[in-house]
Amino acid sequence: MTTKKFYITTPLYYLNSEPHIGHAYTTLAADVLARYKKTKNEPVYFLTGTDEHGANIEKAALNHNVTPQQWTDDMAAKFKALWQVLGIEYDDFIRTTEPRHERVVQAIFEKLLAKGDIYKGSYSGKYCLSCESYLDESELVDGKCPIHKKEPQIIEEETYFFKLSAYQDKLLKYYEENPTFISPKHRAQEIINFVKGGLKDLSVSRTKVKWGISVPSDPNHTIYVWFDALINYISAAGYLADENKFKELWPADIHFLGKEILRFHAVIWPAVLMALDLPLPKQDFAHGWWTIEGEKMSKSLGNFIDPRDITAKYGVDAFRYFIFREVPFGQDGDFSMEAFKKRFNADLANDLGNLLSRTLNMAAKNVGEIPQTYTNANSALLKKAEETDKLYDQNMNALAFDKALDAIWALAGYMNKYIDETKPWMLAKTDPEKTKEILLELVFALRYFASWLAPFMPTSAAEISRRLQSGKIEKYGPLFPRID
Ligand code: MSP
Fold it and tell me: CA triplet 325, 331, 337: central angle to 5 degrees?
């Protein structure tokens, strides 16, 4: 018997530029969910990787005087190194240039060709090189790609088509029967309208791009980079290679992605899976975009946030915390140093850090040994902690990360107030028993924080947990020293 694992994926990142906060965001979201599932002892499998073919990669390599293979080796290593810095615990990292992937892409292409879902024709249209996608006249804004603000090139070529048009009704039916497939909800209508508007067959091969997976039966053609890349979600899961693994993983429980690539994941990808008679992923979750200090990230502004700089200075956990607390997951948001520092000082140094050090310092003085367990049916605080735990779980399961964090910080606020009102440091002089009781309530309520924070701030959560262990409590320095 194979047990199905909760299968989480990120997009495969293009290797034409250095990793930045946008890439980190999608990957961290997947990591937070994977770690959360692990705290609940659910078996999870977390896949990420890199998208290595196509004209843009070829061009980037050429510009740097290296071969595409050298270029992708170097860049993939940079992504891996960043994920290590950020504490990403993935189970597999797939590169689309690996034979285990290329084999499956070729087999699928030939399979669909034999079945008639792929056929040969010719195409003429406007192509945005940065999107790696043909754009419809109706999608252009002032004749330019709405995302990259560049004029598309007119391209005419012999090409293979995937019969996307044949899947229009089936897709609409799937959306209707699975209302959470396209998440968050506010993004679904746009996709539904697009599909209702009529789907055209999709060009899935190129004769001009050399750096790609060749069509086995017609090697003049390489396979379109999106068709190639999407297949990673099943090639990494063992499709056509490892039946048991595939059963354990497929269908994916959640594909995390940014809003600009939702169409590929919610329209093309399910249609390909339908053509292969495979079950469809349960959910595509599209998050929003970060701007930096109010501006779009761009090469000309050079305002990319490199997560390595900020984490080297302020710590990985503070960064992980900030990006999920600051902006509701699914919405666009702005990253500014001012907002980052404000949250660091207010939420981490003050609310959480002070709560922890006040409690521990008073406990060290007044409690003696901390027991293994502590129950107190009359404690309003412990009751509140249990309620918070439920609220936290609800929000984590709904991927409302900001609300899960809000709930925790509301309890921290309540606890700080409880300390201010009961003044244990004064009470200790007149009523040591009551003082001890209050401090035990606080210590045991704080233990919840260690598990709640574990998915977001793994290192700090482990440290909190260590400090709160039973036995003799010590005095400690601040976990998050204030920044100016
Ligand atoms: N290679 C494709 C995906 C293929 S999946 C089979 C691709 N790669 S990408 O390198 O452009 O990165 C995609 C991810 O980075 C998306 O999830 C995208 O939303 C995220 N971000 C890139 N810039 C971003 C922001 N400014 N803000 C938030 N995330 C953004 O697309």
Answer: 50
